[in-house]
Structures are given as C-alpha cells and as structure tokens.
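Exercise 7 asks you to align residues with tokens for two separate proteins.
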Amino acid sequence: MQSQWQKFVERYAQSVKLSTQYDPEWPSACLIDDVSTLTEGDVVTWSPVARPLNAMTEFTDALGITLPPSLNDYYTAFYADHLTVNLAQGDISLLQAWNADDFARWQENLIGHVLMKRRLKQAETLFIGLPSNDDYLISVLLSTGEVVLEPVGKPPQDIIASDMNQFIALCHDSIS
C-alpha cells in the first residue's frame, strides 16, 4: 500500500520537469540521462527512485526519539533532489536525500539540530524543508507531530499543518 507521501512524489514527478546540474562527484540512481556524455554543470533530468523503507532505528535510538510513521516515510521512501512547492509561506524546498552519502549527512544534520534544541532547552523538532527565507525551517514538532515554521535557533513560530499527512495534502494541492 502506498503512503500519502509516495503518492505525492509520484504526482510531483509527473507534473514538474525534473532537472538539475550534473556533478560527476555527486552520483545518484535518480539520474536518467546518459552521464558518459555529460560534463560538470550540464542540465540533467532525474526521477525519484524508490528505496526500501528504513526504520532509521540507529538514528532514533541514538537520540531516544520515536518518529511518526509518516515522517519516517518522508525521510526514507525515495532518493530524489529537493522538491519545491508553493504554500502560504512561499516557495518551500522539501528536502530529500540524493544518494546514500547525502542521507547519512542529512541524518548527521538532524542529530545536530536536535542536540542544539536540547541545549537551548527548546521543544525538539526535525526539519523537513526550507522556505525561501533562509532564516526559517519547516520542521515537525516531535511532541505533537505538528508541521511548523521555525526561526533558526528559536522555538517554532507558526503551525502550518496539524501533522505530516495534512502537510502533504497542502503540498499536493500546490501542484498544478
């Protein structure tokens, strides 16, 4: 059974021209074009690549947290480039892992983010996206599951959606 996130990504891939600049040092199974003819900086087409769902147990055990299934699915269902949606908060890049190295780096950044929130004695969040204003993050508040607009280094400011499913529905509605 497909999750709401998987359905969204498939619809997004069918509705949006997916391209990025080719970097031979940053390979991905997402690349569609024959990379043997490309040079760095060439525009290349890509498509999300499904991957086996990963429970992220090492990550969650290390932090002593539990991820809602929809957030786990968001982090682990695909390799993809970032997906851009337009919501009331403006253009938002939904962060995705391009390859296994990117996923490992992303987990390290998430760990650092949670440790920073603990050090600041703020409610723990995990980021999922970046609005065009880089002073903010789109995050999930772990205590409630709400998707929030979070000023960097500060407590969440606004609730965008009551949970990941409602957030994904908003993103789904933003695709023309």
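Second protein for Exercise 7:
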Amino acid sequence: MTSKRYKKLPTETKKLPSALIEKIIPELKKNCTTKFDESIDLSLQINNKQKKNEINLRTFVNLPSGSGKKIMVAVVCEDSKAQLAKDSGADIVGGDDFIEKIKAGELNFKKLICTPSMMIKLSKLGKVLGPKGLMPNPKLGTVTDDLKKAISDAKLGQVEIKNDKDGNIGLSLGKKSFSDDKVVKNFTAVLEVLEREKGNQTVKGDLIKSAFLTSTMGVSYKLKLPKNI
C-alpha cells in the first residue's frame, strides 16, 4: 500500500528532461520528507552498445565529502600490527582467531582489510565473504601493509564502484543533511573515476547510457552527464 507521504511526492519525474546535478539536488531534497536523514543515491546504467560481459567495472572512489555513514571496519593482520590497526581506528582487529569467527559467520562489519601475508589464509573464505562483497582485494586497496591509510580511507568514505550482470551501478553520494556543494564534490569524484576507468574498458561510444539521482524514500530524477563519460 502506498503511504500518504509518498502520494504527495511528484509523479513521473523520470519523464522530465535530464538536468545538471546542481539543479536537481534542491528539488530532490524537497522530497526527503521522512523523519530520518535519507541517503542521496546515484544509479547508473552502462551503455547497451556493449555486451554485458565486456564491461567489468570494479574499482573504488574516495568521496571527498565522506559518505555520511558510520563504517564498521575490521582488520585481519599479524599480531605485530594489531596495535597499529587499533590506533588507526579499526573497530575489530584479529588474526587466526578472527578468521575462525568469520568462517563461523560472524560478519558484523562493513569493510574488511587484510595484510598480504594473512590473505593466504583469508582467501579460503571466499564462499563466506564473496557473496557479501567483503573479500579484500588489492585493486580496491583493502589488501595492504599500509593499514593506517586503508582504515582512514574506509572510514572517511571509500565506496566501491561495481556493475552487476545487467550493467547497473549504484552508490550513495551522501545524506540529505549534506550541503549541496558536498554532494556535488562526491559526484564529481565519481565521474573522475568513471572517466579514468573508461580507458581500461573496450567501449564503443559513451560508457554510461543513463544516470538517475534519488533519495532513500523519494522519487528519481534524470541526470545530465558530461559527454566524455
């Protein structure tokens, strides 16, 4: 059943002409009428000129304005590096004992970082961590000896950019409480990563076919993207 709140929102916004994000954000925020701080979410669709299996985006973006979310960060490392991880802000730190807890299904964290020497042991838990998108990956900066930087990036708002089998990409650009400028800065950072990744793909024309901006409980608006994305 559609709520009274939702019935008051604009209808058929997807049929409106695409517009720059600076124009859309104020309109979108007007529709954030729930009592909680809604997320502002970006949805992208890869150009349908590509075969679905030809595009395989998996990278990350460090959001300059942060994500607005509290990220529980866990670290698997040697005992000698445990104190460094804790001092750097990790919420959970452990070695072999922690790996056993993960194996048993204890996944009370949002980001998992691992040192290279411990990755051999952790890699055996692919069936546990893989489906949840929690398996550390060197390309994502989550398999590293530089724990301080990895933990800091994760806490400040490092977000994965990954397309699904149908070519969809979804991520949050922040919260309703963010200033418009902070949301735009995060959006710009995402575009910069996509432009860079476009060069690593076999692309005919533009990489992104369409883009929409919405809030957690709101309606979506069509975004106008630069021609080189």
